[in-house]
């Protein structure tokens, strides 16, 4: 029997299975693939009165406008600044946290801290943002503590000063995601063969040497995956987070690409322009994913694909 | 070589050093835990204080008297309970619908055999690469055309199917041995029977993980209600709370009470499902 006929017969023989997948697939076509078709408006001069296919073509005009716009430098600097800091500090910390936790043998404190550390991940940014805005205000708890410790003389309204914004965004994000990001490393460390540690002990390795030569090489795969994903998100800000923390005064440091897309698209009604920026971001993200994947494969011998 | 043959013996000084290292580690880890729990402690503490005292004695964790007026005002608010109920209703409709559709499709993909299945699956996975922000304008226009904008269906309907969970459940279902279902087929049952009676009951950790994440993501979703819903009466708790915080600008105690009450469902669900999702993530290596 030739190939296509066999494929066809197989397909017909699995009608019940196909029926089971059908509804889900229909949903995916409508809600995942149809909006992608809408991305075409990035290359058109779309306005809301005419359907997408009837809008005149604009070529790369919207992209050109974005790259030459005065806001371009600012949103790129803020996006890359916040995410760069997040990568530099927020990427190694969960690895260190996971290693520290795994070295701890007292189960009580280990379990308690582990559970507590997951919790912030599940709380929405609106709530955390509300807390932060309160604490960082001039009469807030941060000022109260720093005044009491005599670190500062005058209360500072932290969210009103652009120079603090990147740090507030990065530290609060690390606080929220540290424990959650550590899960995958903890799982990887649990999977390490104990015999490796026993052998290292017999060879007289110190604790630090065991971490350096056994633990880290064994969780290299998990580190590589997380590294590739983190780098590919370099242009993605956390919209919710920035949106709740930004205000008129810190705009020079808080205007990131995602906020700009929202401002242009849904507030100013420039649908084509903002879709073009969103598309630009997705393309860069894909490029970063492929690049970091290659780097990870070369440096760590492990990658996603 | 003598050292190798001798049983590992901890000398007194080494045992003391090990204890010191453990103590140091405990202090470090405990400090990290304290850093993470502190905001919750202050949130709770402020929620049970009159607003006047929040800034007068910010470092007094346990209030002198338990002040419940903040919560009374939250429940009496004309909008807060409405948003809360909206969020509950939206999650209660979405979770079972998603659970059914996604698990059904995941079963089919775990069991179907045809050429081109893997490339097709990769094509589905590729939709996860397009960030939701990139399609927000096209989605807005599409939902507008469908009459979903400014209704809560704009949150529910698109959320009914999800590729991430399709992938997660398929991975899990594939670990259920085919022999179990083949025995059932000989007895004359169909795929639906196998799916509902054999595969689903065996996949409890994966299903619980899906329920938890779906709940959390929808409960905490800010962008979607913000963009797709305009009416104050129809907002969810996240967007509502943002408005509430802006309205009660000076009354921090009341804001904290609103925040406290909004995290209760999350914390409760988190506590009860914890052991499942940690297990689910550890075995599948997939994390939301």
What does this structure look like?
- The complex is a heterodimer of chains A (305) and B (288).
- By secondary structure, chain A is an all-alpha fold.
- Chain A has helices spanning 3-13, 15-38, 61-68, 70-90, 92-103, 107-118, 125-135, 141-148, 162-190, 194-202, 207-218, 220-232, 239-245, 251-254, 257-267, 271-300.
- Chain A has a single domain, classed as MetI-like (MetI-like fold, Orthogonal Bundle), CATH 1.10.3720.
- Chain A contains 16 helices and no strands.
- The longest helix of chain A is centred in the C-terminal third of the chain and has 30 residues, at 271-300.
- Chain B folds into two domains: 2-47; 70-284, MetI-like fold, CATH 1.10.3720.
- Chain B is built from 15 helices and no strands.
- The chains are: A mainly alpha (305), B mainly alpha (288).
Structure in a nutshell:
The complex is a heterodimer of chains A (305) and B (288). By secondary structure, chain A is mostly helical.
